[in-house]
Amino acid sequence: MSYALFLGCMIPLRLPYMETAARKVLDLLGVELLDMPNASCCGDPISFQSLDRETWLAIAARNLCIAEEMGKDILTLCSGCYETLKTANVTLKRERPLREEVNRILSEVGREFKGTIEVKNLLEVLQEIGAEKVRSFVTRPLKGLRVATHYGCHLVRPSDVLNFDDPMRPVIFDRFIELTGAESVSYQKKMLCCGAGLRMVDTKKALRLVEMKLGYVEEAGADCMAVLCPYCMLQYDVMQRMVRHRDGGKYNIPVFYYPELLCLSMGVPPEELGLRFHRTSPESVLKKIGLNSPPSIS
Amino acid sequence: MEEMPEELRVLIKEKVYFCYQCGACVGSCPTARAIPEYNPRKMMEGLILGEWREILSGDLIWLCTLCHTCYEVCPQGVGISHIIIELRNLATKEGMAPEGFLDSAKQMAATGYVAPITGAVERTRKQLGLPEIKVIDTGEIKKIMELMRFRSVLEDESG
Ligand code: SF4
Ligand code: SF4
What we know:
The complex is a heterodimer of chains A (298) and B (159). Chain A has 298 residues and is α/β, with parallel strands linked by helices. In chain A, 50% of the residues lie in helices and 9% in strands. Chain B has two domains: 6-93, Alpha-helical ferredoxin (Fumarate Reductase Iron-sulfur Protein, Chain B, domain 2); 99-158, no CATH class. Chain B has helices at 6-14, 24-28, 30-34, 40-48, 52-57, 69-73, 80-93, 99-111, 119-127, 139-147, 155-158. At the A-B interface, helix 1, helix 2, helix 3, helix 4 and helix 12 of A face helix 3, helix 6, helix 7, helix 8 and helix 9 of B. The structure holds iron/sulfur cluster (2 copies). Residues 28-31, 40, 64-70, 80-81, 84 of chain B line the site of one iron/sulfur cluster.
């Protein structure tokens, strides 16, 4: 099993520890990850789409062409990349005139969108491997750990294009959390956006959304949050630190990228993951699952 | 901008007019939760009542997170998030896009990524046992932006 790995920008350039965890878990599961030569940023679903939707689609299509040339489906590690690349893939397959327009542009750079591959998020790839097979790798079940899943908007919406899970009441991520032996707790306003899209214009107000979410997570008595997207990670892990500093110590909720939890459940030593780069210490969770915590940088 | 742009006229006629002002979009909107003066229902009302210029040149359209919740919950299929994208595209053509949005496009033209490649991240990647960041040949990206008449957005770049 092999995929064209689409890394994007945020994970490799801002939160590379997320890449470490994803690569490790996929390696354990026997998935081969192939580099995409000259792939750029996906085209960012917020900034680029807002400035000019057609340019956004064309840049995404160029990235799709690279995987088409490799003859491989794309695996995205970031939900922003997932929305962009999947939207472009589905839309250009569906809408002929738009596809012709985009191909006219692409022909000038020697490429052509053919519509021969699929774009998958990490959970889809795990589904393809098979949940039972993934579970069979779990050697250190995260028994007793109460996890609040945050799906993130761009994984499930707009649903007519992404068609991955229910857009307002999704379940797939929760099942994958439970497969590690942890418990997925329900909490209020589970689908509330992390607010990353607001950061570009008003970071302070984006902070309000972070604070609200953390409040609901704490109220539910969760030990930690789990996310699937670097933007959500930045919001809840890094911005939580800001909330904490301003509120004098309120909220100390560790946040994990799902592959990190999977790695821990599969016996990967915590020091092999970049947990020390988290800005909200994961120590309480490691203790709860009986592991020593690596030294923190914060 | 005197005349209503054609794209907007079509969108209002085919989508916005179906809004029956139920407010479901407002109830589920994260930005409305964080910023009370942001109200997608009122935005649709304004478009129906012909206040498109004020809306297009105002700050509010840039506060949407594009979470697409309104798109999913609207009983009338108005598709607000897509209308906001169209409004932002039009405002961009008029030179009204906020700095933060334009910055990422400039960064993209320069490096192919929207985040900068810093020495610090290179070091971190090494510590994490990750491969080096590949420098991208941005020729194709720049050409695509140019051909898409995206230059107006990148004026500073092209000089
Ligand atoms: S949910 Fe739809 S119909 Fe209701 S106010 Fe919002 S846009 Fe109008
Ligand atoms: S897409 Fe924008 S307007 Fe719609 S619910 Fe999300 S933030 Fe609100």
